[in-house]
Specification:
The complex is a heterodimer of chains A (482) and B (505). Chain A has 482 residues and is mostly helical. Chain A is built from 21 helices and 2 strands. With 505 residues, chain B is mainly alpha-helical. Chain B is built from 23 helices and 2 strands. The chains are: A mainly alpha (482), B mainly alpha (505). The interface between A and B is medium-sized, with 33 and 34 residues.
């Protein structure tokens, strides 16, 4: 019984989110539409409370709960805190957008919280089953959120594509897991690692399992050659949902990659390093080259995401603590940049007008120098130009990959970064060098403008002083993977 | 005051950047006059802050002075480490001085987004001083790359008709080179566990690694200088940039490349530098002779001066790679002198362009009749550009040619032809623009320079003649540093296993 209490203490944040999500669904039934801001407040409060509990129960040690299904370690806590922060920012950005499109409903907030619960379970999954459960909870919420604007045919199409391909990927992941289970006789991450050392590295079934697991993970990240869904879903979804899909779930995807590859299947590192290398290079090349041809900002950012994932894989494929820590830094930087980038699209959107064409950014400097400046920082950060966080992100993963001996891939990635710089520069060109198409002033809630400013300025400030975030990532990786 | 004396370089870097931010925050297009004055005060204060670097400079010391160092990113052993020696101090002063000139030159000329324009130049000035004084590779890299952002905007927002093409070309060209340099830094980091420049100087490196490092640095710096054949971005950028942009590009941005050869490529990979010396000398000669011929046929004044810049920068690289004290000092003097002369030339074109909105030589003729004072200045600068004795343009070129005679007579011979070609393209342009009868009605309506333009051109003229007659202030600073540099360059950095002396490779 004592143990049971202890188990519940470990999942306190998850329980909070679960309870509040259901509570929000209930409250929504009894609340008048004009009072719906209460729901919004409740959702933000949930994030705050979860953060508080996560922070309070944080220790530097590693503890397991529910018969080792669930792990509570620094990596999980830090990633969860980042997830709350990202989700909270995302809720601020999307409030007005949802209102203007008649999507400001209780289900939206409940769904976001449920999807976040899925992410939290993934982040803390210590067993293949709990990881899979979290992943499915997240995915199902995202499928339905994409279709949330149900009268929009593009969104429905995107949801359908996302669902079919996502289900396929989940199937592959599950298939891979079953093979690993078949060979090792366990679903527990730690036991798998121990068992693989016993049965030897050159077991064909195990390698097949690994291939399927990697394929499933790559799909969730959107790495080439499993990237097909990314542009369509990014473009077709309402921008608020694109913001959600593009940002925080990447933390969870990163976490399960660490759990599965860096912990469970680590003895097979030599095998998955090669797979990641191929996917990393292809992602960077195809992502960057395709992004050049886009005219839709959301679609362009989708391809840019693919290339960012390629860089992220550079850190992971180093297969050492340095590499994992740098890819964690990269994913944090990436989420911050994505939030700012899509946040800007939401800022420029109005009722009946999606600012998702590249041309909608024309002459932004004349309409609002401040907004243009924030977008400028974001774009240079995505391009990896110092003194922004994006530079350190690229720098850390590249030095890790270099250390692991990937000399030529690093050089190739660097050359592709020049191509990447081109389409980010084009955005700057549109904002600063071109004449505006319309001179409408930008109207957005004060809190959104404020948070967006902080968000974009953070890209610059963390770029000037990256030490704290680097330490945080390094420390959580080191304490959790020992 | 004590705080200031311990952190002169930090003040030199951050004051202009702070001034730029203040200008951005205060400035709007309703109150232009205030914006301009704030920018001017910021630029002048930033210049005054750099003056102690000259007055307090210890001439006998050949290593870094004014050093300051604190930990910046301990995770990668990166330090905020600044310092200056005889190579960097003159360039830092040149940078802060040029910024004042640029702010004054833009006074009435720029009417669109004045605050952003002024701020861009102030911030750029701080970043370039950062490049000249950073002694940590990542700190240096951050300044080096960050400087691209304001320059990109300056050309793109206030530039000519083809500005977008020019500015994107400029950015991507430079970025490509710089990223390869970053790879070299990553390699060196994993060898030494640090980004400190002094650690890199002491690190023994095998010949093949040195060659790769040198090539990576070469890609970054040769583009910036620019050396033939990677010079093609420069004429485009110069032609499309506003006058201030051209001035900063020619006077300072090109020197970033030259300076970085001295600071990074050569001392980190000295054996590779010797190995590539003949190639570099050849490339320099091609730049000097071939680009001078290209300049001869230009129809656009700015393009002509841009090509002349490439040709003059050829002297700089030539001076570096002869590994003699005279050549080295001549090259640095040439960088400083070219900073004054090329800014003056671009400002002269700017004066004409503001009145006629044309840069074509064919649109002018007989300007001397309507603008006599201006013509006097312009002819003086043209003479300086073609290397007339008594102007600063002569000193550097002459020193490099003298050094070249000792190195190899034919190299000296080819380099000396520039005195003919340089005179040819510059004076021919002067003749077509300024002399002869008044060419057309527009020229007849020209008004002579006003007090502001007179002030700028007169200051530059004084400097050009002053350093031409008495270059001692610059050369005195260089002596100890260049002696130190050459001693370092003569010591092979190959690991002890190899017994081949550096010079014979």
């Amino acid at each position: 019984m004592e143990n049971f209490q202890y188990d519940f203490l470990n999942v306190l944040p998850e329980l909070t989110v679960l309870g509040m999500a259901m509570f929000i669904l209930l409250v929504d039934l009894f609340i008048k539409p004009q009072n719906r801001f209460v729901i919004y407040g409740l959702a933000q409060f949930t994030l705050f409370a979860a953060a508080l509990f996560t922070f309070q129960t944080h220790t530097l040690g590693v503890s397991y709960a529910f018969n080792d299904m669930f792990v509570d370690d620094s990596l999980g806590d830090v990633l969860k805190l980042m997830t709350y922060l990202g989700t909270s920012i995302m809720l601020v950005y999307t409030r007005q957008y949802q209102k203007q499109r008649n999507m400001f409903r209780g289900e939206y907030y409940a769904m976001v919280l449920f999807s976040m619960l899925g992410m939290m379970v993934m982040i803390s999954g210590q067993n293949m089953l709990s990881i899979y459960m979290g992943l499915e909870l997240l995915s199902l919420c995202l499928y339905s959120l994409v279709a949330f604007d149900r009268d929009n045919p593009r969104a429905s199409e995107a949801a359908m594509k996302y669902f079919v391909l996502g289900a396929l990927a989940s199937g592959m992941l599950l298939y891979g897991m079953s093979m690993v289970y078949g060979m090792t006789g366990s679903l527990n991450i730690t036991e798998i690692a121990a068992e693989i050392s016993n049965i030897g590295l050159h077991n064909p079934v195990l390698i097949m399992g690994l291939v399927f697991v990697v394929a499933g993970l790559a799909f969730k990240f959107g790495a080439v050659p499993f990237q097909m869904w990314v542009p369509d879903v990014y473009q077709g979804s309402p921008t608020s949902i694109t913001l959600l899909i593009g940002s925080v779930p990447k933390f969870a995807a990163f976490a399960i990659t660490i759990r599965l590859l860096a912990q469970g299947l680590y003895p097979l590192a030599a095998d998955w390093q090669d797979m990641l290398l191929i996917m990393a290079l292809l992602s960077i090349i195809i992502g960057n080259l395709s992004a050049i041809a886009q005219t839709n900002l959301k679609r362009m950012l989708a391809y840019s995401t693919i290339s960012h994932i390629g860089f992220l894989l550079f850190g992971l494929m180093s297969a050492n603590l340095n590499g994992f820590a740098s890819s964690m830094f990269y994913i944090s930087a990436y989420v911050l940049m994505t939030l700012a980038g899509f946040g800007m699209i939401l800022l420029l959107s109005r009722k009946g007008f999606e600012a998702d064409k590249l041309d909608d950014l024309k002459g932004l400097n004349q309409r609002s120098p401040w907004a243009a400046f924030l977008m400028l920082i974001t774009m240079f950060s995505m391009a990896g130009i110092p003194p922004t966080i994006g530079f350190y992100a690229k720098f850390t993963v590249l030095q890790a990959a270099w250390q692991a001996g990937f000399t030529w891939p690093v050089v190739l990635a660097v050359l592709m970064a020049v191509i990447g710089a081109f389409y980010y520069l084009r955005i700057v060109k549109l904002m600063y060098f071109d004449e505006p198409l319309a001179l409408d002033p930008i109207s957005a809630p004060v809190d959104m403008q404020f948070v967006l400013s902080i968000n974009a300025l953070a890209l610059l400030l963390i770029g000037l002083l990256p030490q704290t975030l680097m330490n945080l990532c390094g420390l959580s990786i080191v304490t959790s993977l020992q | 005051m004590n705080l200031f004396h311990q952190h002169i370089l930090s003040f030199a870097i951050w004051l202009p950047i702070l001034a730029g931010v203040i200008v951005l925050l205060l400035g709007n297009d309703q109150n232009l006059q205030r914006t301009r004055w704030v920018a001017l005060v910021g630029a002048i204060v930033s210049f005054l802050v750099t003056v102690p670097l000259y007055t307090k400079f210890q001439l006998p010391i050949g290593t870094f002075q004014f050093q300051e160092s604190t930990t910046w990113i301990p995770a990668f052993n990166i330090h905020y480490h600044l310092g200056a020696d005889g190579f960097s101090v003159p360039l830092i002063l040149l940078t802060s001085f040029t910024t004042v000139i640029v702010v004054i030159a833009a006074w009435e000329v720029i009417t669109k987004s004045v605050a952003q324009y002024m701020a861009a130049f102030l911030i750029m000035s701080g970043l370039m001083i950062g490049v000249f004084s950073a002694l940590d590779a990542i700190l240096y890299y951050v300044f080096w790359e960050a400087m691209l952002i304001p320059m990109f905007l300056v050309i793109g927002i206030w530039g000519g008709p083809n500005r977008v093409y020019a500015t994107i070309k400029f950015f991507l060209y430079t970025l490509l080179g710089s990223l390869l340099m970053l790879v070299a830094f990553i390699y060196l980091y994993h060898q030494t566990g640090s980004f400190a420049l002094t650690d890199y100087y002491a690190l023994p490196i095998t010949m093949s690694a040195q060659i790769w490092i040198f090539v990576a640095f070469f890609m970054a710096f040769a583009v910036k200088i620019p050396m033939w054949p990677v010079h093609t971005w420069l004429p485009d950028a110069h032609v499309e940039a506003p006058t201030g942009g051209s001035v900063v590009l020619a006077a300072i941005a090109l020197k970033l490349g030259g300076y970085s050869f001295l600071r990074f490529a050569m001392p980190i990979a000295p054996d590779a530098a010797h190995y590539f010396a003949n190639t570099m000398v050849t490339l320099s000669l091609i730049a000097i002779v071939y680009i001078a011929l290209v300049a001869l046929v230009q129809k656009d004044m700015k393009k002509l001066i841009a090509y002349s810049s490439i040709s003059h920068m050829g002297f700089v690289t030539l001076g570096f790679f002869m590994f003699s004290q005279l050549g080295l000092e001549g090259a640095v003097v040439q960088m400083i002198s070219h900073g004054f002369i090329s800014s003056a030339m671009f400002l002269c074109v700017g004066v004409l362009y503001d009145r006629m909105h044309s840069r074509q030589i064919a649109d002018y003729g007989g300007v001397v009749n309507t603008m006599p004072i201006f013509a006097a200045f312009a002819v003086l600068f043209a003479m300086a550009n073609s290397g007339l004795p008594g102007t600063s343009g002569f000193v550097g070129e002459f020193m490099v040619i003298l050094a070249a005679v000792k190195f190899n007579f034919w190299v000296a011979f080819l380099a000396a032809t520039t005195l003919i070609f340089g005179a040819a393209y510059t004076l021919w342009m002067t003749k077509r623009v300024f002399y002869g009868a008044v060419a057309n009605a527009h020229v007849a309506e020209l008004t002579d320079i006003n007090r502001r333009e007179f002030l700028i051109l007169a200051t530059l003229a004084l400097l050009v003649i002053g350093f031409g007659v008495y270059p001692e202030p610059i050369t005195a600073m260089l002596q100890a540093t260049s002696a130190e540099f050459l001693t370092h360059m003569q010591t092979s950095k190959l690991p002890i296993l190899s017994s081949a002396p550096a010079a014979s490779i």
